[in-house]
């Protein structure tokens, strides 16, 4: 048994899991809009490839005094769906920061535009699209949400504090 196995415990859950005061996983993120569709992924079931809609996508939600910090992995459920989930879990609708993969790498122009429109409505203070977002989507986000847009790369850090 490794040190990791001795000191950790895997918890498999579709539900949100509280990790500390005001910090939780999102659990399964409901797909509530018609533009953040998951396509092109497969898994093996009974020896056959079947479509995988990646329901096991996860995000971390931190409730701060002045809004939510939402940390996405690869955002397969969609950044907009994930924000809606975080709001429904916490009751907080102010968005302090959204950081991580927005999964817009192969997104259509329409999906990118609808994502930008939704993010503009949520009005995040800090917006940090990362690895699977695509240069095209980042460019659009940067031009449309320039006051909140930030770039962050491996080895860099971002300090987020409450006002």
Q: Categorize the overall geometry.
A: globular
CATH-defined topology: Metallo-beta-lactamase, Chain A
Question: Number of helix segments?
Answer: 4
Sheet with most strands: strand arrangement: 1-2-5-6-7-8
Query: pLDDT average, as an integer?
Result: 92
Percent in helix: 25-40%
Uncertain spans = none
- Going by helix content, strand content and strand pairing, the class is alpha/beta
End-to-end span in angstroms? 45 Å
Based on DSSP secondary structure assignment, what is the total number of beta strands?
A: 8
User: Helix and strand succession?
Assistant: HEEEEEEHEHEH
Main pleated-sheet profile? 6 strands, mixed
CATH class assignment: Alpha Beta
- Domain count: 1
Round the Cα radius of gyration to an integer and report it. Answer: 17 Å
The CATH architecture comes to 4-Layer Sandwich
β-strand percent reads 15-25%
The CATH homologous superfamily corresponds to Ribonuclease Z/Hydroxyacylglutathione hydrolase-like
What descriptive keywords fit this protein?
163 residues, alpha/beta, Metallo-beta-lactamase, Chain A, six-stranded mixed beta sheet, two-stranded antiparallel sheet, 8 strands, 22% strand
Structure notes:
The protein is an alpha/beta fold. It has a single domain, classed as Metallo-beta-lactamase, Chain A (4-Layer Sandwich). 25% of the residues lie in helices and 22% in strands. It has helices at 3-7, 79-90, 109-122, 135-144, and strands spanning 18-20, 23-25, 42-45, 48-51, 59-64, 67-72, 95-100, 126-129. The protein has a six-stranded mixed sheet with strand order 1-2-5-6-7-8, with helices on one face. Strands 3-4 form a two-stranded antiparallel ribbon. Strand 1 (18-20) and strand 2 form a beta hairpin. Helix 3 runs parallel beside helix 4. The protein starts with a helix and ends in a 19-residue tail after the last helix.
């Amino acid at each position: 048994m490794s040190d990791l196995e001795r000191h950790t415990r895997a918890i498999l859950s579709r539900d949100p899991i509280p990790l500390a005061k005001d910090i939780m996983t999102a659990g399964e993120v409901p797909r509530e809009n018609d533009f953040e569709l998951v396509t092109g992924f497969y898994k093996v079931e009974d020896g056959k490839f079947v479509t995988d809609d990646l329901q096991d996508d996860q995000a971390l939600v931190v409730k701060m005094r002045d809004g939510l910090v939402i940390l996405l992995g690869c955002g397969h459920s969609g950044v907009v769906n994930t924000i809606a989930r975080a709001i429904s879990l916490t009751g907080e609708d102010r968005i302090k920061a959204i950081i991580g993969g927005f999964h817009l790498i192969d997104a259509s122009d329409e999906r990118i535009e609808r994502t930008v429109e939704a993010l503009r409505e949520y009005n995040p203070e800090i917006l940090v699209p990362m690895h699977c977002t695509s240069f095209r989507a980042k460019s659009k986000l940067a031009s449309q949400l320039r006051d909140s847009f930030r770039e962050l790369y491996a080895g860099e850090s971002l300090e987020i504090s409450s006002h």
